[in-house]
Amino acid sequence: MTTAAALPLSIAVATYGHTAALKQGRIAIAGVQPQFIEVKPIVAAYRRMVRDVEFDVCELSAATYMIAREAGAPFQALPVFTYRRFHHAGFVCRDDAGIRTPKDLEGKAVGVRAWTVTTGIWTRGILQNEYGVDLARITWVVDDEEHVQSLRLPPNVIHAPAGRSLIDLMAAGEIQAAFTDNAGIGRAGPPQEGWGRGNQRLPQYLPLFPDAPQLEAAWFKKTGIYPMHGLIVVRDELLAAHPGLAQALFDAFCAAQQQYLTLLAAGASAADQDDHYRRMATIVGNPLPQGLAANRPAIDAMITYCRQQGLLAKPYTAEELFVDPETA
Question: Which pTM value belongs to this model?
Fold first, then answer.
């Protein structure tokens, strides 16, 4: 991007191994003077961006972005993905609920932080498309707001009673299964500093897929889908006013990622996510692929799952939702 002076941009993105070089100034963004804003947890930035367009550049969950964009949000995504993982793990059941196969979830109540949580969308997509689960025959219990407030929820999505968390409901047997970590019973309340359950110890619950690592590897081999979570969005008016901005941001994020991947390959310790991405690499090769071509199976699957789950009104192509840095 060519400008007379560096363009100041407010940027809200979490610190990962693959964004550290960018945030620490070791990688420059051509023509940009970045003003990095720390938001913890980063999920709180999602809400602020969707509702108030508070930042120039922001990390956002993939599903929230697609829903917000269809609703008219004035920002667009770059094919830069900030977190990746598979989704057979992270879902547990009470031992006394009689849930031994995915189809056993039908007729049960399941806890998820919000209907549009990206983890929930990926897992529900797998349950429906790989195991024939009828999602409409499950009561989905949520205990947080949706980021996009205009979204209308399906009738089988209900809110937890006031003052009750998914943690409480699961312990009492009022829900029989739930997502773990920040997608479900690993936290309580809306995203804010210190988010989580603190020192509370959860009962031992049964994983729906005890052999999750093997299933994830087999699913990737079959489908080519490597699920993405976070991505990067940029305000429309900035993209229009600065034609080289998309390319400059894309190049900088990719350069920071390459530094991280080099450290990983050398066996160095760079970030908390090192072991995770080294495990992902054994399945997918490059654990942080960027760009449209490398991510088309995942993008197409997310669009399909959002359509199936009532989150998007019409189908989209990747090109309709993402800026192609080469032509922006």
Answer: 0.93
